[in-house]
Amino acid sequence: MTLTRYVLEEQRQHPDATGDLTVAMNSVQLGCKFVESCVRKARLVNLVGLAGNTNVQGEDQKKLDVLSNEMFVNALKASGKFSFMVSEEVDDIIFVPESLRGKYCITFDPLDGSSNIDAGVNVGTIFGIWRLPSGPRATIDEILVPGSEIIAGGYCMYGSSCNLVLTFGDNSVEGFTLDPAIGEFILTHPNIRIPSKGKIYSVNEGNSMYWDDATRSYFDAIKYPTPESGLKPYSARYIGSMVADVHRTLLYGGIFAYPADRKSRSGKLRILYESFPMSFIIEQAGGRAITGTQRVLDLVPTHIHDRCPVFLGGTEEIEQVEAAFATHASWVKGNAK
Prior knowledge:
Elements: H1 3-12, H2 20-40, E1 50-54, E2 60-62, H3 63-79, E3 82-87, E4 94-95, E5 104-112, E6 123-131, E7 150-158, E8 162-169, E9 172-179, E10 184-189, E11 200-202, H4 213-223, E12 235-236, H5 242-252, E13 255-258, E14 269-270, H6 271-284, E15 288-290, E16 307-308, E17 310-313, H7 315-327, H8 329-335
Helix pairs in contact: 1-2, 2-3, 4-7
């Protein structure tokens, strides 16, 4: 089962489908294949190192950041199915020429974790697709909507293998692996379900001195369980590339977190092209994603590069997080101002 065949079969299950989303996904697939090729030979063709620019987040852009972004923008524009694009690497909304506009908007991080690229660490692409109510005549107001309106989300991880994980909703998440011999993504992880409870936590503990009491108490509880509980402490696994950390959490269970703290009071992860797509995937796989006090997909961003805190994982893990935040509600409320 190739990715192309899978998308076509999904289309056939919806008699009213126009095929536009199928074409849109083909352009995303092409972008992922191109980036995978560049990542694999980056050192050989001098694509490592800085490009000499910074993005809207104030982060130094790598050469591959710039190239990956250009490739995705060109492929998505050429599909004729998108009116707007939002990229981590571009300050403003990307407007598609009127003759090529379609009924969708796509948000994407073309190369998440690129600060690790020179060290050979797994990196990836994250994307989310929304349907624009007004189609090609849509205005930018139709982009800033709750995450619950997302219709497709996915990520592609570039490492020892190239894995693309995708969901169109309907409580179904599928994983594909690129076969370089034929240049096609093959279904290798059908119907992925995240375990309700795991044994791994993934968080940047270098920021722990800035955490609020709720976050600290939750992680202390899973690292230092009481003897009476009979529980074993969780193992720490943190790569520093969201795609890689979330992929492991999705397959093995546990929790991934990038909480708000005194240094980043609004959190660090971008809502439209990191938090929303990843939260959508986790929920469709049977898990949950919250900010600590509310569901991530209920957020409504006011700017295309807004940020939010994220805790995502199995249902039992998130229930523990909610309990910690409920216990420390007064502290959290006072320090959110």
